[in-house]
Design goal:
Elements: H1 2-27, E1 33-39, E2 45-51, E3 56-61, E4 66-70, E5 76-81, E6 92-98, E7 103-108, E8 113-118, E9 123-128, E10 140-146, E11 151-156, E12 162-166, E13 172-177, E14 186-190, E15 195-200, E16 205-209, E17 215-220, E18 226-232, E19 237-242, E20 247-252
Antiparallel strand pairs: 1-20, 2-3, 3-4, 4-5, 6-7, 7-8, 8-9, 10-11, 11-12, 12-13, 14-15, 15-16, 16-17, 18-19, 19-20
Length: about 260
């Protein structure tokens, strides 16, 4: 009788284990299809944006304080070196391109500010966004531009995870707290679907959500820890940079 009880207990435990695995598989998001991955010479790239005027990409290095223009194969075209702020190298995290003004806007997480840069590399101004910057590296992480309404959208990494909507002068209009990932690390605006694309480094997710942060779809990218994202909706492609191995990945959105 004891042997029978032991066998039944083992059978029940094994059955519950496989049921749990099946449940996790059913709930896990689909894996995003990677087309190709390129090595970058940019040290710790963080943030990504598409320059529609040149069909190239811009990224930033949170290690060197450089703003770097690359082609879609990851080759460096040119670099802008930002000067130290208060004798400290800027901790650059996110970047966006405003085609109307031919300006780049980059996040300096060190003091939760946005630095506006001309196409020639001249610093126009630095605007403080949050009076109480996130502690323990949980501050501003990404920025994107919605040209049709002249709004910017920013993300705060954690504690709490929020999307901040501003006007064209970077004055806050609204904020939305989200909980679809462990952190937020990059953002871009999709002008075709009028939605946002966000990446999470620790969850290794790509999330598509509406402008209020409600999740529409989610993908997994187990092969890299994403730090920045740029979308090419016309070709159904996502460009993603990873700072853990300094790479640029190109992914296709099969169900877009």
């Amino acid at each position: 009788m004891n042997n029978m009880r032991i066998q039944l207990s083992v059978f029940f435990s094994i059955s519950m284990f496989f049921l749990s695995c099946d449940s996790e598989l059913e709930n896990s998001p689909p894996v995003l299809h990677k087309i190709v991955e390129y090595s970058l010479s940019v040290i710790e790239p963080s943030g990504l944006t598409f320059d529609e005027k040149t069909s190239s990409l811009w990224t930033v290095s949170d290690q060197t304080g450089k703003v770097v223009n690359i082609d879609t194969s990851g080759n460096v075209i040119r670099q802008i070196i930002l000067p130290p702020f208060d004798l400290t190298l800027p901790d650059l995290e996110g970047i966006t391109f405003n085609a109307e003004l031919s300006e780049l806007l980059v996040i300096n997480e060190l003091n939760s500010s946005i630095v506006r840069i001309s196409a020639s590399g001249r610093i126009i101004e630095s605007v403080r966004i949050m009076e109480n910057p996130g502690l323990a590296n949980n501050g501003l992480e990404g920025i994107c531009y919605k040209g049709d309404t002249k709004n910017y959208f920013l993300i705060k990494e954690n504690d709490p995870k929020i999307i901040i909507k501003t006007d064209s002068n970077l004055l806050e209009l609204e904020r939305f707290e989200v909980n679809f990932s462990n952190d937020l690390s990059g953002i871009d605006y999709d002008a075709v679907s009028k939605t946002l694309w966000i990446v999470s480094e620790s969850s290794r997710y790509v999330i598509n959500c509406n402008l209020e942060g409600d999740e529409i779809r989610k993908y997994s990218i187990d092969s890299m820890a994403p730090e920045g994202i740029a979308i090419d909706p016309g070709n159904k492609k996502l460009y993603i940079v990873s700072d853990d191995n300094s790479t640029l990945g190109i992914f296709s959105i099969l169900d877009y």
